[in-house]
Amino acid sequence: MQSPNNDYNATSKRGWFTRFLDGVEWLGNLLPHPITLFAVFCLFIIFISGIAAYFGVSAVDPRDGETVIKAVSLLNAEGIQRIVTNLVTNFTGFTPLGTVLVALLGVGVAERSGLISAAMRGLVMKAPPRLVTVTIVFAGVISNTAAELGYVVLVPLAAMIFYGLGRHPLAGLSAAFAGVSAGYSANLLIGTVDPLLSGITEEAAKIIDPAYTVGAEANWYFMMVSTFLIAIMGALITDKIVEPKLGKYNKDEASIDLSDQSSMDPLNKQEKRGLIYAGLSVLVLAGILALTVVPEWGILRHPETGDVKGSPFLKGVVVYIFFFFAIPGFVYGRTVETMRNDRDVIDAMSHSMSTMGMYIVLVFFAAQFVNFFKWTNFGTIFAINGAEFLTNIGMTGPIIFLFFIMVCGFVNLMLGSASAQWAITAPIFVPMLMLVGYSPEVIQAAYRIGDSVTNVITPMMSYFGLILAVAARYKKDLGIGTLVAMMLPYSMFFFVGWSVLFFLWVFVFGFPVGPAAPTYYN
């Protein structure tokens, strides 16, 4: 029999943990909308630049040891004129804007036709029972290519699959949620998040090196390997930690009727035929693309050197995303009769763009903030002084990335948007770590780890409410604390495992994080 003291201690521990979660939620709720946040930051930069310029804030350029870089005021006539005359071009010239919209045009066709949903169902529902968990996590990671589809389709589907197999549905939900959200940056394919982040990284890198470019493929190698690590770790955590803790499921805990949950419709013949034809179209596209880059006379090789490095092939990744989703999507839609002509394709693209209204508004203010920050020279000054501080305390080795990943993970608890968070932090950390000696590509790869692993434990993540609503179907009294506690093991183990992989991949084996991506910046 358990003693009263043990009951009291257990209650105290649960109370402390609940209070901690309540505190995180309360602090997060104090933050305004990310768009409002960027607008406030813009005003803050203008105001603080005047103060910094008045007090002569500056830094000595380490490239020649003589040039003094001073803070520039935007709170004067010249600064106001610069803001007014560049407000539109700041927005239209913001690198991530065009790349993300072009990529989503293609993804929208594949999503609207039903190709992505069918591919995910086929992948998960055909998996052998012993491999169901790892397949669900793996499918969750892959679904990131199509943005929110994993949250909307795979997470509820995974809960249904686990219930149909006589397992705890919340274990299936947590496995899918971990793959989609905690493994957000890992993928076998280059998705819409890659050009978005690389564009922000490039803008930040230009603070130090105006000619520096960062392609959407900058982290491709590392993210491909990370996919398998996340899938394996996610499956082990689900089977060994989360599901045993949840115990045997009692359907009386559900808030909905589960009588029809045990039967799930598999892919029909028409959908299977559509997937086959879509796969064949992918092979044809891959063959055509190979002809443009594999032979020495390939038209997408570098026009002067003939190499793949710096070639139009690597610079045109967003174009490939568009075609590799749009064409197979239309082939699938035509086969299953969800798309019949060009109007259906146009409607799919239009629908995809209509969902980007919030993103476009966010980009407008983010672009102003990034440019204001650049004009004031704050990024360069912070980077130089920060790099000198790190050098003086002897923290210039790879261990610095452990603290960087931790900082990114902590910030992500309060600012769930990957693009919003990186737009704020990149102008500070990218130049600083470049001056210490690391490339923007490696810095971005480390950021993506921190940005991903805490997604599943923060109520600030945009789809957290949706996941909570789906989970409440299977456990009527489920609250935020229960969901966070269920997902916390994923966050902890992913942080450790993914960081270890990063250090082994980059600093032990010396592998590049992406095609032609350097590890160090000289």
UniProtKB/TrEMBL annotation:
Alphabetized InterPro entries for the sequence: AbgT (IPR004697)
Transmembrane segments: 35-57, 91-110, 130-163, 170-190, 220-238, 274-293, 313-332, 353-373, 393-415, 422-440, 452-472, 493-513
Pfam family, one: ABG_transport
BP GO annotations: p-aminobenzoyl-glutamate transmembrane transport
GO MF annotations in UniProt: secondary active p-aminobenzoyl-glutamate transmembrane transporter activity
Domain of life, per lineage: Bacteria
Keywords (A to Z) from UniProt: Membrane, Transmembrane, Transmembrane helix
Protein name as annotated: Probable p-aminobenzoyl-glutamate transporter
Underlying gene: abgT_1
